[in-house]
């Protein structure tokens, strides 16, 4: 069996994340792999450009940009806390927070960092309906193996 030396965990930083983390840790330890973490935020300018008309006052575009910066900072802090609480004793090579379309950023990251395994949660049926099936798209479009962990209860 082929080993895995670079594992990507696209981390949602939601209730599903602590459920998926033990699987990620087990596989990373099993293969003595380096672990990459990627959290993707939706770009706020997409919402602003789509739904907010051009108007001089108030400057919604600036407000959205400032808010996006604050959200990015909070996401980085939350990721750091998650690492300390759930990903001990694994070799984390990179932990990044980026903005964009989740499945696209995950695929791009996997290709650019020469990832050889992606481990991610599938979420609940409700999450899939509301946010789209990111795991489904990644598993179909990825050039590397994708391990999907059922992470939520539909109850």
Can you tell me about this structure?
The chain is of the alpha/beta class. It has a single domain (6-149), classed as Rossmann fold. It has helices spanning 17-30, 44-51, 60-86, 102-112, 125-131, 134-141; strands at residues 6-10, 34-41, 91-99, 117-121, 146-149. Strand 1, helix 1 and strand 2 (34-41) form a beta-alpha-beta unit. Helix 2 (44-51) runs antiparallel to helix 3 and helix 4 (102-112) packs parallel to helix 6. It is elongated.
Question: What keyword list fits this structure?
Answer:
alpha/beta; 5-stranded parallel beta sheet; elongated
Question: How would you concisely characterize the structure shown here?
Answer:
The protein is of the alpha/beta class. It has one domain (6-149): HUPs (Rossmann fold, 3-Layer(aba) Sandwich). The protein has helices spanning 17-30, 44-51, 60-86, 102-112, 125-131, 134-141; strands at 6-10, 34-41, 91-99, 117-121, 146-149.
